[in-house]
């Protein structure tokens, strides 16, 4: 963020000649956040110990004796939480970047325009109504069904939003924002209705939808989110050039050889996978999808072939950082993750808006 | 040959094109003229493949473009739209390179194309800070790069390429159109300005009410009688020396 501040005060964009430098910087941040997330908590574990434990685990060994407690903390508590944080942070940042590309607007974000709310409604419905039904059959089905339902909810919301705000190949930004806010409110109202039918235990689970949390991280959740995030990553790898061309407009993208319809549907499936699976395992987390792509554009430029991978990496790293703050700020209690991302992200975004009004809307 | 034959197109219950035909020929400059609402832009978009005609077909090298994948089409023809708003803060060089493979090869092409539109100094500038005329020329450079990266000389379609340009830049664009034609490119442009059309065109196609009202060399089409028929004004065509011209001062409604 210091680099961003410097770049903006200088009034110019800092752009490395080589994309490798940008990717390398993002990878370093991910590595640092990864180690920090494993090291920091009620029990502080030295990075050297962490590497030893991870190395041993990779060889299928588990340390015993005095080191057992640290091994359990790292492998069973912090590692799933850290991996889930990387997946969710990367997923929402990537989904945000693709949403902005496809709507051709830097304000489009799944959390802001109702897509995450659609996913939350579907997930809540599944937990309260469908889940008990499926759990009666097999508990595993209930767990696996949640991300799938959230994905479906996000997909329906994205398609609806797209159909409402786009006519004759032109997307109206005002319509998109209004329709997104309306869809989000509708989904939130629906979620409120569903919550009425919830049991006390379910009700406690729901508090985390509103603000998001990595607190419930398990290896099962990591595995449940993984296929959706892989799908998103696969789609993102095919979208870079198409999203660059779409920045010129839909007709112009077609002129330079992009199959615009195909691009849109790929993007919509990817957005729904990223936003849906994130909501399913970690609730609604705001501002990461909005701020991270914006930061990358300032630092490395708007080209999507670099923006997409960098956004995924930086999103993962920043969410891990926010989670460390959430875990330690009021220890032994835990802040909801969404409180931290909004608490840091919203003021930062407002500051960006004030600094760069012309660039955003000009 | 790149042709739109016998095109009929309706929008919102209105017939915008009614059996219009336009052909781009390799090595030649074809110019579409006509009053506002004559269907120039619609015919242009049908030719580009943006709009599907209700009747008639567009063929490129004998094949109906409906069946040609966009990526293949892009290697055969480039399109310059009237004005392009770019959504994110791309640099000039990035905009010129959009849609073509990059790498060192691409970079050299971008530099050459910007030199051809006399904007070499703006490589790293932010696109959204440029003037309207500069943006227009950057977009023209983008189509040059696309043509160069494509198969064969190809075809270039230009919609009002001189619209936001001053006189010197208008002449630059006209000269470029001629150079491209000499390199074998089939050039087709929509132009409002009859004098520029007369200077640029090998063939003029005059549209009115969605139909072709006249076609031929500038000398054939730009006559007092035709101008009266097309625009509903009386005007006197002059000659300078072998190109017809029209002074608005000589015209009366």
TrEMBL record, chain B:
<keyword id="KW-0067">ATP-binding</keyword>
<keyword id="KW-0547">Nucleotide-binding</keyword>
<dbReference type="GO" id="GO:0005524">
    <property type="term" value="F:ATP binding"/>
</dbReference>
<comment type="function">
    <text>Part of the ABC transporter complex HmuTUV involved in hemin import. Responsible for energy coupling to the transport system.</text>
</comment>
<dbReference type="Pfam" id="PF00005">
    <property type="entry name" value="ABC_tran"/>
</dbReference>
<dbReference type="InterPro" id="IPR003593">
    <property type="entry name" value="AAA+_ATPase"/>
</dbReference>
<keyword id="KW-1278">Translocase</keyword>
<dbReference type="InterPro" id="IPR003439">
    <property type="entry name" value="ABC_transporter-like_ATP-bd"/>
</dbReference>
<comment type="similarity">
    <text>Belongs to the ABC transporter superfamily.</text>
</comment>
<protein>
    <submittedName>
        <fullName>Heme ABC transporter ATP-binding protein</fullName>
    </submittedName>
</protein>
<dbReference type="InterPro" id="IPR027417">
    <property type="entry name" value="P-loop_NTPase"/>
</dbReference>
<keyword id="KW-0813">Transport</keyword>
<feature type="domain" description="ABC transporter">
    <location>
        <begin position="2"/>
        <end position="234"/>
    </location>
</feature>
<dbReference type="InterPro" id="IPR017871">
    <property type="entry name" value="ABC_transporter-like_CS"/>
</dbReference>
């Amino acid at each position: 963020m210091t680099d961003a501040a410097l770049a903006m005060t200088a009034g110019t964009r800092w752009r490395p000649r080589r994309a490798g430098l940008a990717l390398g910087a993002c990878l370093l941040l991910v590595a640092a956040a990864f180690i920090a997330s494993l090291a920091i908590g009620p029990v502080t574990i030295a990075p050297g110990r962490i590497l030893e434990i991870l190395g041993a685990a990779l060889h299928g060994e588990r340390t015993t004796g005095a080191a057992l407690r640290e091994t359990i903390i790292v492998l069973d508590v912090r590692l799933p939480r850290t991996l889930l944080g990387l997946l969710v942070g990367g997923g929402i940042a990537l989904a945000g970047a693709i949403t902005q590309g496809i709507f051709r607007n830097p304000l489009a974000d799944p959390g802001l325009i109702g897509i995450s709310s659609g996913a939350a409604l579907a997930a809540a419905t599944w937990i309260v109504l469908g889940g008990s039904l499926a759990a009666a059959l097999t508990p595993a089905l209930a767990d696996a069904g949640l991300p799938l339902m959230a994905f479906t909810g996000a997909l329906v919301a994205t398609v609806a939003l797209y159909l409402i705000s786009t006519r004759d190949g032109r997307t109206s930004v005002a319509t998109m924002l209004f329709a997104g806010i309306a869809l989000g409110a509708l989904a939130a109202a629906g979620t409120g209705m569903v919550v009425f039918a919830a049991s006390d235990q379910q009700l406690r689970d729901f508090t985390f939808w509103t603000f998001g949390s990595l607190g419930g991280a398990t290896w099962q959740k990591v595995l449940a989110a993984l296929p959706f995030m892989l799908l998103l990553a696969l789609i993102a790898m095919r979208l870079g050039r198409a999203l660059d061309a779409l920045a010129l407009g839909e007709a112009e993208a077609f002129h330079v050889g992009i199959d615009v319809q195909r691009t849109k549907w790929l993007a919509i499936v990817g957005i729904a996978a990223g936003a849906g699976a994130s909501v399913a395992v970690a609730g609604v987390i705001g501002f990461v999808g909005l701020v991270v792509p914006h930061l990358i554009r300032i630092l490395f430029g708007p080209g999507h072939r670099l923006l997409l991978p960098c956004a995924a990496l930086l999103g993962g790293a920043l969410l891990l950082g926010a989670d460390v703050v959430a875990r330690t700020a009021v220890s032994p209690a835990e802040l909801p993750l969404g409180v931290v991302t909004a608490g840091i992200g919203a003021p930062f975004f407002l500051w960006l808006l004030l600094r760069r009004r012309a660039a955003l809307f000009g | 040959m790149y042709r739109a034959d016998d095109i009929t197109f309706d929008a919102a219950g209105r017939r915008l094109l009614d059996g219009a035909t336009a052909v781009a020929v390799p090595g030649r400059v074809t110019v579409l003229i006509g009053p506002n609402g004559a269907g120039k832009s619609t015919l242009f978009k049908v030719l580009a493949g943006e709009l599907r005609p209700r009747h008639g077909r567009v063929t490129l090298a004998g094949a109906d473009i409906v069946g040609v994948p966009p990526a293949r089409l892009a290697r055969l023809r480039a399109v310059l739209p009237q004005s392009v708003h770019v959504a994110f803060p791309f640099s000039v060089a990035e905009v010129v390179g959009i849609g073509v493979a990059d790498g060192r090869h691409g970079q050299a092409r971008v530099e050459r194309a910007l030199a051809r539109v006399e904007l070499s100094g703006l490589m790293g500038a932010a696109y959204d800070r440029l003037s309207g005329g500069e943006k227009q020329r950057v977009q023209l450079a983008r189509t040059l790069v696309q043509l160069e990266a494509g198969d064969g000389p190809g075809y270039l379609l230009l919609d009002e390429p001189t619209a936001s340009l001053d006189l010197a830049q208008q002449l630059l664009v006209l000269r470029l159109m001629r150079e491209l034609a000499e390199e074998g490119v089939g050039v087709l442009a929509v132009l409002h300005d009859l004098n520029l059309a007369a200077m640029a065109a090998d063939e003029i196609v005059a549209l009115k009410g969605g139909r072709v009202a006249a076609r031929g060399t500038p000398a054939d089409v730009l006559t007092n009688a035709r101008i009266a028929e097309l625009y509903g004004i009386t005007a006197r065509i002059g000659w300078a020396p072998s190109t017809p011209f029209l002074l608005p001062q000589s015209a009366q409604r």
